[in-house]
Design goal:
The chain is mainly alpha-helical and 550 residues long. Helices cover 73% and strands 1% of the residues. The chain has a single domain, classed as Sodium/glucose cotransporter (Up-down Bundle).
């Protein structure tokens, strides 16, 4: 439980975000047109690179990351930091190869883009998958992590706390549209990072510095926890080759082909701001390993030295052995390492992660329902009707997400559960997007069949592994499973493209690269704003980091 002063700080923060979200959204819509769909769903395509980068980061980093990355740091060290640093490379792909087509096409949704490159059936299928992933992955899992935090800190019922926060977030999101989402996400990113820095510094000071941490890990024979790239056969199930083979399959879908994430880019003022925002987010993604994952490792060190009391997290397994349930490690660190006042800031940071994830996903769901579903069946629909349909869809999605919480709570690790689901959803989507923009011979029928068959295969494998955990493929780590499914999808689409040759439309001819170097030859800002220069710096930084923590 936390002090009354900290509760007041957290409450004031929630109220301020609510007011700012409503004010910014309503003000923006008054400056444009009250019911203009473009202004509501895409902020009138007025977003600049700082807001885009901060919003991308905030939508990605939810309470799931704050809670689960600390949990993973306690359990396996810096290993899951790979998901953060590898994201920088996929953001480079987004900036260089995907953004030009997204901005050029003028689409409001990625399913719309897929129709321009392939056909209507591909658009419909991606809409369905994107809606499911937004509800399950972006909202429900975030609610679950937020509920755990609220229960641990305030002692209130998990579902009650989540419902209250969700309703507050939904109100300003539904009323204000994307402008409200991006403005609040920018603020939430700053608060979230500040809070994470505070707990990281407090834990680091309590340990005594880097060398004392090394000494404890050496004594406990746990020095491998500092390694990001593990050898083949590592008990974590995520050796170095799984990271480099499997993550791109998950990452390209998440960062380059998922509506909830990419919608911030679609609202960019122009291509330079879209690219700049994506690369800016890539630089920010350096931070999570040090401010989200490392605190969990520091908590492990403090626990081993007796400086952190985890009695509230201890339980007994089936064999009668005492174990630590590390799901609540982050909240225990907050209450034991920080003084009153700073605890309130950390609670605000945790709530920021929950609110930003929910707001971003609800806005994307609204956009897809309005443009990819409602407008399809009622082409004559006006802007006011589109906005109304989006608002109704957001409410329904929120209710459905809440109903999923008991089912998702069965996962021992929220982060692993999240990525387990993504590993079976992402492969066919990553495949059709990659081949679509890099291979002119990728046909519409091949993409359609790959999406259908690839998604069916992923669902069958997922269900089979859950119902029959002793089957031969159940032991394959999710990263490698994603890679194997992706290879099958690529094979299918290539074969189908030769069986059913491409017949390009006037639009589709413009949405694939004719030469691999073409993206690097585009006009760019001069000096430090040149996307090629920024890309080079980001690549150098990431390679150096991976080498340092290999």
């Amino acid at each position: 439980m936390i002090a009354a002063g900290d509760i007041v700080i957290a409450a004031v923060y929630i109220v301020l975000i609510f007011i700012i979200g409503l004010w910014s959204g309503i003000r923006h819509r008054r400056k444009t047109r009250a019911n203009a769909a473009n202004g509501y769903f895409l902020a009138g395509k007025s977003l600049k690179w700082p807001a885009i980068g901060l919003a991308l980061f905030a939508t990605n980093i939810s309470t799931v990351h704050l809670v689960s990355l600390a949990q993973s740091g306690f359990d396996s060290g810096l290993l899951n930091g790979n998901f953060e640093w590898m994201a920088a490379f996929t953001l480079i792909l987004l900036a260089l190869f995907f953004v030009p087509f997204y901005i050029k096409s003028g689409v409001a949704t990625l399913p719309d883009f897929l129709e321009k490159r392939y056909d209507r059936a591909c658009r419909d299928w991606l809409t369905v998958i994107s809606l499911i992933s937004a509800v399950v992955i972006h909202i429900a899992f975030s609610m679950l992590a937020g509920g755990i935090v609220l229960k641990t800190l305030f002692g209130i019922d998990m579902y009650t706390g989540v419902i209250v926060i969700s309703i507050i977030t939904a109100v300003y999101t539904i009323v204000g549209g994307l402008k409200a989402v991006v403005v609040t996400e920018s603020i939430q990113t700053v608060v979230l990072v500040a809070g994470a820095l505070i707990i990281s510094w407090a834990a680091f000071q309590k340990v005594g510095g880097w060398q004392p941490m090394i000494n404890v890990l050496t004594e406990e024979n746990e020095l491998s926890k500092l390694s990001m790239l593990r050898p083949s056969g590592d008990e974590s199930g995520m050796p170095w080759y799984a990271v480099f083979l499997g993550y791109p399959v998950l990452g390209i879908w998440y960062w380059c082909a998922d509506q909830t994430i990419v919608q911030r880019v679609l609202g960019a003022k122009d291509i330079d701001h879209a690219r700049g925002g994506a690369l800016f987010c890539g630089f920010i993604k350096v931070l999570p390993v040090f401010i989200f994952v490392l605190p969990g490792l520091l908590a492990f060190v403090l626990f081993k030295t007796g400086s952190l009391d985890l009695g509230s997290l201890k339980t007994v397994d089936a064999a009668g052995k005492e174990i630590v349930q590390s799901k609540g490690i982050y909240t225990v660190m907050i209450t034991q390492l920080l003084p009153t006042g700073l605890v309130g800031v950390l609670v605000a940071a945790l709530l920021s992660g929950l609110m930003s994830q929910i707001s971003g996903a609800l806005n994307s769901i609204s956009t897809m329902i309005s443009y990819d579903v409602y407008k399809r069946y009622k082409p004559e629909v006006n802007d006011a009707q589109l906005v109304k349909a989006g608002k109704v869809a957001a409410v329904i999605a929120l209710v459905f997400s809440l109903l999923l919480l008991p089912l998702l709570n069965r996962y021992e690790s929220i982060f692993n559960g999240l990525n387990d689901i993504i590993a079976h959803i992402a492969p066919p989507i990553t495949c059709v997007f990659l081949l679509g923009i890099f291979w002119g011979k990728a046909s519409a029928k091949s993409a359609r069949l790959t999406l259908w068959l690839g998604s069916a295969l992923g669902a069958i494998v997922f269900v089979l592994n859950k119902l029959m955990p002793d089957n031969p493929i159940a032991g394959i780590p999710f990263m490698m499973m994603a890679f194997y499914l992706f290879c099958v999808c690529v094979f299918m689409q290539v074969i189908f493209s030769f069986l059913f040759p491409v017949a390009h439309t006037k639009e589709s001819r413009d949405f694939f690269w004719k030469h691999p170097l073409e993206p690097l030859r585009m006009k760019a800002r001069r000096g430090l704003g040149d996307y090629r220069f920024l890309t080079m710096i980001l690549v150098i930084v990431m390679v150096w980091l991976f080498y340092s923590f290999r």
